[in-house]
Description:
The protein is 0% helix and 60% strand. By secondary structure, it is an all-beta fold.
Amino acid sequence: TIKYTIPNSSNNHKTTLKIFDLLGNEIETLIDEVKSPGTYEVKFDASKYSSGVYFYKLQCGNFVQVKKMTLIK
């Protein structure tokens, strides 16, 4: 589960949440829609991916946030 917050300054902008591998290759898009400011959660089904380090990038208007996550199976 990935928790994320869309800031108030990002009203009526398309929100994307993408997962990248360690080499920077995009492997999955979890969210690609307009969302209101607030806090949300999304499930990431990582069953088809191997253990390792991944990044997720949240983008909404001019707001961009990248965080690292470790997948352990």
